[in-house]
Amino acid sequence: VWIFGYGSLVWRPGFEFTSRKVGFIRGYSRRFWQGDTFHRGSERMIQHPITTLLFHFQACTWGVAYEVRGEQIAASLEYLNMREAVLGGYDTKLVKFHPQEKDAEEPILALVYIATPQNPSYLGPASEEDIAAQIIVSSGCAGHNIEYLLRLADFMRYFCPQAEDKHLFSIEEALISILPCLYCTEESPEET
């Protein structure tokens, strides 16, 4: 079984796997439009954006596919169903994964978790600046949401430099432009 990750799964799968491949799926674009009240947010936070996929015929989303075999299958699916479906509100779909390797064979069928607008935690569209402002104040048991955004942007830069993800990089740019302002409001030791 192959499992495709496009958010935190690209650097923290949380399950044992046999092999991994960088590549993409067609027909979806990555969006920070899903809320999270556990891993990167809390019940008291209203907005805590993480990624989901939006159907978009001409788009493609880059990520990592993990191959799980034997006993890994049941353990990984049990873990991911809790992490993504029960706690995250995602549905599962089968998609065609295209490995990045030049000598890659035919596309591989992979399982992917996608949150839909019918999900109660679905946040929907917002400006990149608003999403960045929400990310700055969101954290949960898996860490701060800033880490989620920056690690995902780093993954794209280092493993998929040929790919464009305007939404992701615009949010990263907005976040970086906001962060210095947070420190501007604090007085330096010399000023007190």
From TrEMBL:
One of its GO terms (molecular function) is gamma-glutamylcyclotransferase activity. GO terms for cellular component: cytosol; Golgi apparatus. Its EC number is 4.3.2.7. Its main location: cytoplasm. GO terms for biological process: apoptotic process; glutathione catabolic process; nervous system development; Notch signaling pathway; response to unfolded protein. It is found in: Cytoplasm, Cytosol; Golgi apparatus, trans-Golgi network. Keywords: Apoptosis, Cytoplasm, Golgi apparatus, Lyase, Neurogenesis, Notch signaling pathway, Unfolded protein response. It comes from the Eukaryota. The keyword Lyase applies. Pfam families: ChaC. It catalyses: glutathione = L-cysteinylglycine + 5-oxo-L-proline. InterPro entries: ChaC (IPR006840), GGCT-like (IPR013024), GGCT-like_sf (IPR036568). Catalyzes the cleavage of glutathione into 5-oxo-L-proline and a Cys-Gly dipeptide. Acts specifically on glutathione, but not on other gamma-glutamyl peptides. Glutathione depletion is an important factor for apoptosis initiation and execution. Acts as a pro-apoptotic component of the unfolded protein response pathway by mediating the pro-apoptotic effects of the ATF4-ATF3-DDIT3/CHOP cascade. Belongs to the gamma-glutamylcyclotransferase family. ChaC subfamily. This is Gamma-glutamylcyclotransferase. It comes from Pampusana beccarii (Western bronze ground-dove).
